[in-house]
Amino acid sequence: MVRRISIFGATGSIGQSTLDLIRRDRAHFRVVALTGGQNIARLAADAREFGAEIAVTADPALLPDLRAALSGSGIEAAAGEAAITEAAARPAEWFMSAIVGIAGLAPGLAALEQGTTLALANKESLVAAGPLLMETARRHGARILPVDSEHSAIFQALAGEEAAAVERVTITASGGAFRDWPLERLAHATPEEAATHPNWSMGQRITIDSASMFNKALEIIETHEYFGFSPDQIEVLVHPQSLVHALVTFRDGATMAHLGAPDMRHAIGHALYWPERRELPVVRLDLAAAGQLDFAAPDPARYPALALAREVMEMGGLAGAAFNGAKEHALTAFIERRIGFTQMAEVVAAVLEAIGRAGSHRAGAFTLANVAAMDQMARQEAERIINRITG
Ligand code: NAD
Ligand code: MG
């Protein structure tokens, strides 16, 4: 059987790993749409290699470049936010949602409306609009398969189990680039230093989010939204080797752990072939070589983002959209060297406080328009706070 698939964020780290798996199993897939951002050469080369029907860049100014790069191929070219979402409405059986940031939400929803399968790497859409995404999937009979390594791990540990029998789940975190730095040095950490990861090779933004543990904060909320576990059932452990991805503890006291090399092609491949298990090109676990596995509770002073995730779940409503919007804005400000590393959490905390005080997260239902409005409000509030603290 040949399956029609589309990849959103094809030029990124997850998108390229997805194409790597497709390349090894070409006969079974027909690529419909590939989307990217600035990297037109990569997008066009992949569209040609896989014989895509359409290639879309997020940047309208780059449409002439994309057209030129695809000329003579017969592949359609398009550009802009709306064109990406339109591409998600082209019939396909499997979609990879691997755009980074809230821009992944609208195409994810459009894909779900087809009632097929959405492999979800774009955790931001679950954090900002979990109920909207899950309800859209339910209404259209679509399936969301988690691609974040921790969530794929939980999903696998839960196979054949009853969710009601789960006592708690534990997701692990490497601790990021600054796990062993003295606390007082963190304020002076640069974007380059934060963008190096001890174990995983990922996009720049998620790598910096790993150093601050905003990534783990997003993942706590992702666990809550996707699996429905209550906040007090979800815990985080620092695990420097990144070999254990998640653990599920059942009410009889048994804990099921998921282990594997830190290679996203496992979680992607699992979602690609689910419910079957196929051979995947990932390094097999060698525990004797690893020698030891270490675990520690995260230090709340080093990782203030984790407490913010708890606050967001307590606030409920559209607080997730505010949290994600503020975090994305603060992260960009850090990358642009407008604020320091530790100021990211300060900005996000201040935004949550302002939104909470005004009660704006409680206003309005879970619609795409309301999520987008809350996202914008949080970014504006973050910008106001950044201007204040940077004088
Ligand atoms: P990346 O930066 O390497 O790639 C991002 C992709 O999104 C690129 O194709 C880029 O062109 C596209 N993009 C960026 N901004 C866009 C916009 N405004 N509109 C449309 N497209 C846009 O990121 P990544 O590391 O591959 O991560 C992608 C998603 O997967 C993120 O949500 C991330 O949190 C999640 N994720 C990544 C990993 C990983 O190992 N890289 C693991 C778990 C989850
Ligand atoms: Mg993860």
| The CATH superfamily title of the largest domain | RNA polymerase sigma factor, region 2, helix turn helix motif
Count, helices: 16
CATH topology value of the largest domain? Rna Polymerase Sigma Factor, Chain: A
Describe the strand arrangement of the main beta sheet, using strand numbers.
4-3-2-1-5-6-7
Quaternary organisation of the protein chains: single chain
Separation, N- and C-terminal Cα atoms: 61 Å
Describe the structure.
46% of the residues lie in helices and 15% in strands. The strands form 2 sheets. The chain has a 7-stranded parallel sheet, with helices on both faces. Strands 9-8-10-11 form a 4-stranded mixed sheet, covered by helices on one side. It folds into 2 domains: 3-146, NAD(P)-binding Rossmann-like Domain (Rossmann fold); 152-390, Orthogonal Bundle (Rna Polymerase Sigma Factor, Chain: A), CATH 1.10.1740. It has 16 helices and 11 strands. It has 391 residues and is an alpha/beta fold.
Any descriptors?
391 residues; alpha/beta; Rossmann fold; Rna Polymerase Sigma Factor, Chain: A; 2 domains; seven-stranded parallel sheet; four-stranded mixed sheet; 16 helices; 46% helix; globular; binds nicotinamide-adenine-dinucleotide; binds magnesium ion
